[in-house]
Amino acid sequence: MTPTPKTALTIAGSDSGGGAGIQADLRTFFACGVHGMSAVTAVTVQNSLGVQGFSEIPADIVTAQIKAVAGDMGVDAAKTGMLATAEIIQAVAKTLDEVHIGRDAQVPFVVDPVAASMHGDPLLREEALDAIITELFPRATLVTPNLDEVRLLTGIHVTDERSQRAAATALLDFGPRWALVKGGHLYDSPRCLDLLTDGTQYIELDGPRYDTEHTHGGGDTFASAITASLAKGLGVPDAVEQGKRFIERSVAESYPLGQGIGPVSPFW
Ligand code: PLP
């Protein structure tokens, strides 16, 4: 018999194209050697050309999924991706407290504040961003916004290392223990420089930029790889370092698929 692996839970939306969302999260958990579980928040109609629409899952069904797995199998770390509505966010926050997931409960919780697809299609109702800040950030071990999300959340337009540092500090004011400001969308930089901070340590993670347009699901994959490492018991700086190496290889091996933007790859 195989020994029971660590478990990771994703609370996120489905991508019918299989490149992002829970599909990306679950295959990343698998590739990282943890047992993946999911609470589906929304079903998107999506392919390589973008998101054609979505339907959210009733909030009580989202929370029932979380309670079902937490009560039986246990959760070693959790993450959120697409949450769709303020109602779902509020219900998820309440349930995480009930099942003892979150920074204060010692079960690591990663919030990837997904607002839109890389095509610009909304994945979160506009009024719900405030709920992510007030309901989820104070419960988070780590938040992982990209630069577009940083601008929505803090109003800071990151253009260089100085503004990246200011943005990371501003994110901490919302209450997460750690903030990771991903620099991958700073396209005039030849490197992908990410900044991780808890307010005392400022850790720079440097990596190559790969010349590919096929990065669909990259943010989800990065956050999931970090979550898997946290489930295995790594501290936040080590988990983020491992996640960075995982997403680098995934982007390096990304592939064209369909007529639009192909996914980052789990094949390496
Ligand atoms: N679809 C779903 C369900 C997602 O969760 C995400 C990202 O979190 C996306 C699409 C967008 O992925 P990308 O921005 O990589 O296209």
3D architecture notes:
With 268 residues, this protein is of the alpha/beta class. It has a single domain (7-252), classed as 3-Layer(aba) Sandwich (UDP-N-acetylmuramoyl-L-alanine:D-glutamate ligase). It has helices spanning 21-31, 59-72, 86-98, 129-136, 147-154, 161-172, 218-231, 236-252, and strands at residues 7-15, 35-47, 50-56, 77-80, 109-111, 142-143, 178-181, 191-197, 202-208. Strands 3-2-1-4-5-6-7-8-9 form a nine-stranded mixed beta sheet, sandwiched between helices. Helix 1 crosses helix 7 and helix 7 (218-231) packs antiparallel against helix 8 (236-252). It is globular and about 45 Å long. The chain starts with 6 loop residues before the first strand and ends in a 16-residue tail after the last helix. The mean pLDDT is 96. Pyridoxal-5'-phosphate (PLP) is lined by residues 12-13, 15, 20-21, 44, 46, 81-82, 114, 117-118, 123, 216-220.
Question: What topology does this entry show?
Answer:
Elements: E1 7-15, H1 21-31, E2 35-47, E3 50-56, H2 59-72, E4 77-80, H3 86-98, E5 109-111, H4 129-136, E6 142-143, H5 147-154, H6 161-172, E7 178-181, E8 191-197, E9 202-208, H7 218-231, H8 236-252
Parallel strand pairs: 1-2, 1-4, 4-5, 5-6, 6-7
Antiparallel strand pairs: 2-3, 7-8, 8-9
Bound molecules: pyridoxal-5'-phosphate.
